[in-house]
User: Fold these one by one.
Assistant:
Number 1:
Amino acid sequence: MGAEQLALLGGTPVGAVPQDPHPTFSDACIQRVVDHLRGGRTVGLNKGTDVVRECEEAVAAWQGVEECMAVSSGHAALHTALMGLEISTGDEVICTPYSWGASVSCVLHCGAVPVFADVDVETGLLDPASVEASITPRTRAILPVHLFGQPANMTALCAVAQKHGLVVVEDGSQAHGSIHAGRKVGSFGDAAGFSCMGGKLLASSEAGYMLCHDKEVYWKAALNTQHMGRCSEPGYPDALRPFVDSLVYTYRASQLDAVMLTEQLRKIDVENAGRRRNVALFKRHLEGLGSIAFPRFPAGDDPAYHMLSVNFVPEHAGVTRATYMQALSAEGVGTWPYVPSPIPHWTRFRWQDYAGPRIFWTDQLRASGIDYASVEVPNCVTKVARSLEMGWNYVADEPARMERLAEAFWNVERNLPALREWERKEVLV
Ligand SMILES: Cc1ncc(COP(=O)(O)O)c(C=O)c1O
């Protein structure tokens, strides 16, 4: 690796490092989808449909939980999970301020009130101590997100939940196959929601799934989110039958997605292992590079890399993150900060002066009286300011790619004095 001049300053770029295509579908998967279409079967309302049952049983077995319900999206999965646990009007749910909005909108769509705890500053994952400090008499649930495929500390979060009589709903949308304490995430909480849209680790076209251990939760979730056809599944409780109707959210998954998910499951372990090997190699190449710090995980935890999230160290680099990203980008490496700001500080949480289109949950927030703008989540603010994300569809073992990726970072590192000088002049202009 040479100390070439920075591409930003006119040097030759290290060059882009292509990722593997994602998602990919095996020939068997494509054949099954085609056969299914040829068979003219697109309606699948419940486990009585062979491909729905096959998908839900395969996902449940792979995840290590009793129950799975295939649904139309990750948001649908989370909303379904919360409704299965009867989270409703005025209930408080402790959320992370550092995520994709759907990790919180699912709470809003129950008529419930999100209360934001702070995160671990390295990983951006919910901090169990802050969660415990956020509990009030109205708290009903905790909603941890395994962001970027990093496993949240489910051992500590479940202990807090148990101590205070709360339920836990995991958002595993970015974390299929992520391991906490030797077990797959999604199996710790009372329920979990996963997205399977095309960009996710377990990708179909648009779909998701809800997991739970307790069949009661499954039935209650189905009552509100699925076609009444679900009530013809064996074991449907008589107590719920009087309430079965079509006053539901239409969150069922398509049969084609059920077929795709079953087939995608056959290769996800191999793909996740490849992503992990590439991260390990990349990390080795970056040893000693001071501008970037990798989040650390306890023994027994093993992220699944939907994205790679690292932390920029401005004290070392002596330039802003924006300048650093610009220099990397000129070398051919794209990075971006995934979460723009803490969620409670987003415009639509400012119910006091909200002037956008009418939506019921802004009224709900108003009724709560919580001043979200003043919610203090200092670790989240730091994580937002430092985090750098990279797409991580590096599955195949091609060591030259990790070398080249690292070379781009090292080129910036070796040229930090020149980059500082460039930044200083840019600021003066
Ligand atoms: C963490 C997280 N939760 C929930 C979702 C929602 O998933 P979907 O887009 O399938 O509704 C996403 C999607 O990106 C996500 O990243």
Number 2:
Amino acid sequence: MKIKEKVFVTNNFEETQKLGENFARSLLASPQGETSNVITLYGELGSGKTTFVQGLAAGLGIKNRIISPTFIIVRSYKLRIKDKGLMINDFYHIDLYRVESERDLEGLGIEEIVNNKNNIVVIEWAEKLKKYLPQKRIDIKFSYEKDNIRKIMFGSSNQ
Ligand SMILES: Nc1ncnc2c1ncn2[C@@H]1O[C@H](COP(=O)(O)OP(=O)(O)OP(=O)(O)O)[C@@H](O)[C@H]1O
Ligand SMILES: [Mg+2]
């Protein structure tokens, strides 16, 4: 499935999870280096970012339950995908909702995490991380339409 530069409308949370799962498959199917390993998520509270990450993680074969923000900003999950020459070691779920200043980011090692090509990194509230964002990434914008309807827009930069 090619989902670059596409817009989706989902009608319930399961559809958003499914979209995340399909997106994971498209990531795994692309030869390493051809797609970005950093995925930035934008959109208001409740627009479906974490729901999408749940599907994404499931699609990467992660069995852990992906949860919404606590005070933990960076969570990592082990992953071993060696088929098709992929060498992805870790999946990172970064949630910056509670970050108020650049100082809150110090010591988290985010720059190393996003620059390691053996990681898949998904970042909620990525607008708070301007400084460390790599040029090559996949941007996904979520918008709350009404009730259970969400619009999800995929774009890629520098690919
Ligand atoms: N189509 C849909 N897609 C995603 N979530 C939906 C949809 N319809 C209803 N929901 C509900 O909306 C909520 C979305 O919450 P979620 O935690 O995914 O949002 P979020 O964008 O991560 O918010 P936050 O910025 O607080 O982290 C969930 O309670 C989910 O069940
Ligand atoms: Mg969230």
Number 3:
Amino acid sequence: MSGGDENALIVEGVYTAYDKADVLDNVSLRGEPGKITCLLGSNGSGKSTLIRSILGLTPPNRGRIVFNGTELTGLPTHKIIATGIACIPEGRKVFPKLTVEENLRLGGYQEPSADVVRKRLDHVYETFPQLKERKEQVAGTLSGGEQAMVSIGRGLMGAPKLLLLDEPSLGLSPILVKENFNTIRRINEQGVTVFLVEQNVRQTLAIADYGYVLSKGRVVAHGTPEVLGRTKEVHEAYFG
Ligand SMILES: Nc1ncnc2c1ncn2[C@@H]1O[C@H](COP(=O)(O)OP(=O)(O)OP(=O)(O)O)[C@@H](O)[C@H]1O
Ligand SMILES: [Mg+2]
């Protein structure tokens, strides 16, 4: 492992299929350590499938995925998570009948020390003061924006090195979308590498350091936000 690959996410020549439907077609990309890398693409282009491939939920048929020098391909999901990865899945599921704090504690289940769990809870409450006020409330009665905070907070409870986010702002009002992006930026500033799947092109490119565009399972463009914002692939993916 070269020094530059520490905490890097490396996807190389990945092919992933469901039953007989081929989805990812030779996908290669890199999530740079300490940076925000985004993945754009129209509905059905394979973005969530790539996240599922990274997590080993739908393992690739070919290619390799490496994080922080560890080959993830072939590992079971819990071992992949244990390399320091947290995922905020599409639809940001919370456990509706559990309280905010119970939801958050589930994200720290791999941490044996109660002191450490307490510290991480405090850190999440610092990041999301609104959750502290509502820590005894059952999560199913929270607003959509608050549920998004719980979902991200739960991810942070594992003190991840890499945070995968699958359309975290989907369904949020414009003001909450803005807050959501600010939160992602703050988490990244604390040293967490971010891999962000999003539909909000403008706001995503405003916080990302680098990006890729997926179309029909292939990477059709990549570059800095300045470059990507001008490519026809981004316009085709989102504006027809
Ligand atoms: N469990 C599954 N079984 C069969 N096909 C699937 C399955 N999940 C996804 N697909 C198909 O794989 C393709 C890629 O889906 P995926 O969910 O990765 O797209 P996406 O880019 O995340 O789209 P969206 O922006 O709508 O979330 C789609 O054609 C979808 O119908
Ligand atoms: Mg998706």
